[in-house]
Each structure stands twice: as C-alpha cells, then as structure tokens.
UniProtKB/TrEMBL annotation:
CDD domains hit by this protein: THZ_kinase (cd01170)
GO molecular function: ATP binding; hydroxyethylthiazole kinase activity; magnesium ion binding
Reactions catalysed: 5-(2-hydroxyethyl)-4-methylthiazole + ATP = 4-methyl-5-(2-phosphooxyethyl)-thiazole + ADP + H(+)
Protein name per the record: Hydroxyethylthiazole kinase
InterPro entries: Hyethyz_kinase, Ribokinase-like
Role this protein plays: Catalyzes the phosphorylation of the hydroxyl group of 4-methyl-5-beta-hydroxyethylthiazole (THZ).
Keyword Transferase: yes
Keyword Kinase: yes
Annotated residues for binding of substrate: 65, 221
SUPFAM superfamilies per record: Ribokinase-like
GO biological process, one term: thiamine biosynthetic process
E.C. designation(s): 2.7.1.50
Organism in which the protein naturally occurs: Mitsuokella multacida DSM 20544
Amino acid sequence: MPLGVSFFFIFKEESILNHETIQKEIIAAVHRAKEDCPLVPSITNTVTIELVANAQLAAGGSAAMVYLPDEGEAIAAAGEAFYINMGTLMPFYAETLPRTARALQEHRRPWVLDPVGIGIGGLRKGLLQCFRALPPSVVRGNASEIIALANLWGLDSGVARDGVRGVDATDSVETARPAAEALASFIHGAVAVSGERDLVTDGTLTVRSEGGSKLFTKITGAGCSLGGVTAVYLAETSPFIAALTAVQAYNLAGTRAAREAKGPGSFTAAFLDALYAATPEKIAANPFVVL
Ligand SMILES: Nc1ncnc2c1ncn2[C@@H]1O[C@H](COP(=O)(O)OP(=O)(O)OP(=O)(O)O)[C@@H](O)[C@H]1O
Ligand SMILES: Cc1ncsc1CCO
Ligand SMILES: [Mg+2]
C-alpha cells in the first residue's frame, strides 16, 4: 500500500467514530461518572423531580435542584454540567431560566435542555426562543417536542406542523430525524429523541438505540430523568457520547426491569435498581446501530 493510502487509513481509524470507538467512549464515560461523582444541578419540573434526582444518583452523579434566580446562577457556576427541564413553569422562571442560561454560558458549563410541553403557553415559548441565543449542549425530548423546537427556532425540521399534545409525543421518532439533525448542527452539540427506539445525533453522525420497555410510557418522568442522567454524563464527555450513554443505560435498565416488574409501580423501583447495577460494558453492549 502506498504511504499516502496507509496514512489515510490510520488517520481515518483514529478520527472517525464507529461502533467500536463509540463503545469505548461510552465505557470511559460511565466509569468516570462513578469515580468523579460530578455535581449536576437541575431546574426541573415538580412532577418528576424525585425520579430525576434518584436516577442521577444511580448513575453516579450528585443532584441539586433549585428554583430561584440567584440560586440558579450560583449553582450553574458550581456545577460541572446542568439540566433544565421546562415541565412545570412558574412566573419567577421568567427570571431564573435566562439568568441561569447566561451563567452557564459565562462559565462554559455544558447543559441539557428538555423542552417539555413546548406549545402550551406564552412564557414557555418566550423562554425557548431566548435559549436560541444561549443554546444548550444537548436537547433531549420526545419526537413531537424535537420537531416543535426545530420549528420554533426556524430550522428545517422536515415537518411543517407540530404534533405536541400536552407533554406526550404524537409523532414517530423516525419522523423527527431531520429536526433532530438540524437542531444538533445548530447548537453544535447533540440531540436525543426518545420513543420505542431512540435516536441520537450530532447532526452528522446518527445512531439508533434499541431496548427499553413499553412500561416507560406508563410512568411519568422516564424522559425527564433521562435528561438528568444525560447531564451527569455530560460532565464527563462530549454531548454526543453523553446523550448516547444515557440512552443506552435507559434501554438496558428498562429491558431488565421489565422482566421483573408486575406493573408501573414495581417497574420504577426495578428500573432504578437496574440503572444503579448497570456496568459500563453492559451499557456499551446494549444494541445500537450507526445509521
Ligand atoms: N414503546 C417504548 N418501548 C420501549 N421504550 C420506550 C418506549 N417509549 C419510550 N421508551 C423509553 O422511555 C424513555 C422515555 O422516553 P419517552 O419518549 O417516554 O419520554 P417523555 O415522553 O419525554 O417522558 P416524560 O415526559 O414522561 O418524562 C426512553 O428511555 C425511551 O427509550
Ligand atoms: C406530566 C407532566 N406535566 C408537566 S411536566 C410532566 C412530567 C412529564 O414530562
Ligand atoms: Mg418528556
């Protein structure tokens, strides 16, 4: 092989993420989260706040939930990554969320946005418009939320309408792929779309992760807590690997929990146990396909 050609192959192998290199990065991220116990604060909804904190602890992180503007600012600087979930807005969030997002930008802290309930009201819309100029590192949502956010930010989502109804999805994950890729490119980060099969993209590289359980749709907060766990891994690795690691952990733990659960109540407990017990190697070995 001429020297130029072999150099090309070596360069290609080292610089391009493939299935094997992605698995290695997932393993490293899970190890580091458990070793470092990063502080990952959240401003999240009041419905699922406890599940978010418990899932973050199970992944190895340290959780801290705040509501007030000055506390959001202060803890944004103290934390290593951050999670903002728009589920249950209150009037003072008009001040808390922009001030926290500005502090995150100033201190160069990566953060995850879950645009829950996009489309419900004016404050939510205004705050999400404000985040266009203060972008997160990862957007995590169900298919309808991802399509709606791409449309709100004027990106080419591939779907003109948005099918959000309350906080649940009415679109398929595959339908949201163009919106997810456009959003990920726009934020120079990653987007995770949840559903029966999850999609994770950095705008160029798109991966589909399999597993989980239908029982996830019978509890509230599986998606919210997935966002919180993504933020834990974001303290340790790139947006794309963080988003995929969390998705892989959820699909593995969800599959295992469903084997023992009798219904939504026992599923939630079995899921937290399985998330806590999930090894880096098993998380990386959960089935995923590079599309
Ligand atoms: N039909 C399904 N089969 C398997 N796993 C699923 C299914 N639907 C959702 N999940 C999993 O459930 C988790 C949450 O995804 P979901 O799309 O329900 O989020 P969400 O609608 O934002 O949830 P919430 O707003 O209640 O927190 C993800 O890990 C996803 O893979
Ligand atoms: C049910 C619900 N309502 C507002 S936030 C939330 C949690 C799921 O997104
Ligand atoms: Mg949700």
